[in-house]
Amino acid sequence: MKKFNWPLILIQRFTVFSLFSVILLLQGCGSSSGKTNPDPLAISTTTLPSGQVGAAYSATLTATGGTSPFNWSTTSGTLPAGLNLNASTGAITGTPTATADNLALTIQVRDSGSPQQSKTVNLSLTIRSAGPITLSLSPKGGGLTVTQSISLTATTNDPLGVTWSATAGSFRSQSAASATYVASNSAGTVTVTATSATDGTTSASAIFGVTDLAGVTTYHNNLARDGSNTHEYALTTANVATGSFGKLFSCNVDGAIYAQPLWVPGLVIGVGTHNVIFVATTHDSVYAFDADTSPCVTFWQKSLIGAGETFVNSADVHTGDIQPDIGIIGTPVIDLSSKTLYVVSKTEDTGTSCIPSSACHQRLHGLSLIDGSEKFGVPQPSTPPSQCPGMATVQVAAFWRLTP
């Protein structure tokens, strides 16, 4: 009978099987190829620099992650003539021969991994025209009241437009071609500048005089009747000249103007807050005009001629000093605290030629600055013409500001 040492055989077989299992387990924990998974593919480039027709251009797209080498292509949009995208390097090079204004491009990159990864990015490209950048600003300057706003427009051949700055005050809004500037609450001179977004050495400026003048409320500006304005910051002997000083707009009225027009800043009237000019005519009308808006804006017109009356003709009172009509001649007076305009009108009963004298009327009116209504009921009779020592007259020039 043959003898087997079976426990030893079983142990040896078990050992061999265990070693084989361990080897398989170790192999299963790694990669059979020895490769690792690459990082996710991403495009690093987020913007493209602008260029100019006729000038060499170069910009290189970059990517991270993935497995190199990469392949670049445009999937939407076409590069301007003269530019090419290198599929291997991602470089956009060449000399453009055509302009482009924020041209939309979709760029794709693909890696060499398996499975292959790909990513796209949306970019814009601007190629400006050949030659130097030109830039102008409108208006070129003028006068503002404290906290008043004004709209400015920049005209430039820079496709990227302009950026805005000011030595004082702030901007309510800004864009590549326009801005709304708001003056500070301090009087003085301020410079607003538009600078080319592409070429920081190219700019245009507008200079504004910011006044804190409370208003022109009486004849020759003050009780001294000297006509001075000690709060003038806009007009100088240098800028009151052809090319920078001129008529902005005109407003129609119903008669000649002998009374000095008056001015009130920051009046809440109509829709919003405005600087307002008050004008009185020889046909006994009073007007409230927007002092800044072109074409002319009339807030209100008030006729001070009563029923059955008309303005006086110079022949009716046998004078040649004021022709042809006599209505409101003296400059009104404004009380800012009550927002009242006081003015004396002159009328006559229709068809009487001021004969008898009682047919001629001088009345004192108190008008609301807001709507022209009589604030104190019926107008009050004024000093009879025969007792008046005389009335001052003044010829009024047009209103002006620095022109664009």
Quick summary:
The protein has one helix at residues 6-29; strands at 42-43, 51-52, 57-60, 63-64, 71-76, 83-85, 91-94, 100-110, 118-128, 135-138, 141-145, 149-156, 162-166, 170-174, 178-182, 188-196, 203-211, 245-247, 262-268, 273-280, 285-290, 298-303, 309-313, 325-326, 333-335, 340-349, 360-368, 380-381, 400-402. It is mainly β. A hairpin with a 4-residue loop joins strand 19 and strand 20 (273-280).
Q: How would you describe this structure in keywords?
A:
29 strands; 1 helix; 6% helix; mainly beta; single chain; disordered N terminus; disordered C terminus; 404 residues; 39% strand; four-stranded mixed sheet
Structural overview:
This protein is 6% helix and 39% strand. The protein has 1 helix and 29 strands. It has one helix at residues 6-29; strands at residues 42-43, 51-52, 57-60, 63-64, 71-76, 83-85, 91-94, 100-110, 118-128, 135-138, 141-145, 149-156, 162-166, 170-174, 178-182, 188-196, 203-211, 245-247, 262-268, 273-280, 285-290, 298-303, 309-313, 325-326, 333-335, 340-349, 360-368, 380-381, 400-402. 27% of the residues are buried. It is mainly beta and 404 residues long. Mean pLDDT is 86; it is low at 1-33 and 385-404.
